[in-house]
Amino acid sequence: xxxxxxxxxxxxxxxxxxxxxxxxxxxxxxxxxxxxxxxxxxxxxxxxxxxxxxxxxxxxxxxxxxxxxxxxxxxxxxxxxxxxxxxxxxxxxxxxxxxxxxxxxxxxxxxxxxxxxxxxxxxxxxxxxxxxxxxxxxxxxxxxxxxxxxxxxxxxxxxxxxxxxxxxxxxxxxxxxxxxxxxxxxxxxxxx
Length: 192
Fold this sequence. Notes:
It comes from Parascedosporium putredinis. 73% of the residues lie in helices and 0% in strands. The chain has 192 residues and is mostly helical. It has one domain. The mean pLDDT is 92.
């Protein structure tokens, strides 16, 4: 047996060990989020930027790659935060090792805020002397993003039939398929 096969065999023993299932499903969820984000954003950005943006080929390609990277990172980060939060709530919740009815809501709330609800560094904090309307506007987006993702993740877990079919399919790929593998090949390279 070659040293590469020995290493592969050792890694496979680890990833197939049930003790590591929860943690490794977080890793695979991040992988699936990054893959799905890239597969969706790249062709969309390619078409939209090359058709509707001006600039050099190099500049347009840079915009396509940046948009793809951003989307892939956002989905990977959200999947990581979401799955870690659900795992922690299940482990340390009121009934240990049992998922609570609102764990997915809370995990979506946290992930939605961290990934999609943050203010950009350019906007920063608003001074206290600004109007009440400006303050509401400043905090409206984070609240909206957090609550939207909390509801989407709750619906996905408990009422998936209420979600649009392509959204449900993408969420299955990121959050459900990441819980299953039987080899190194379909843990890293192929989803199934």
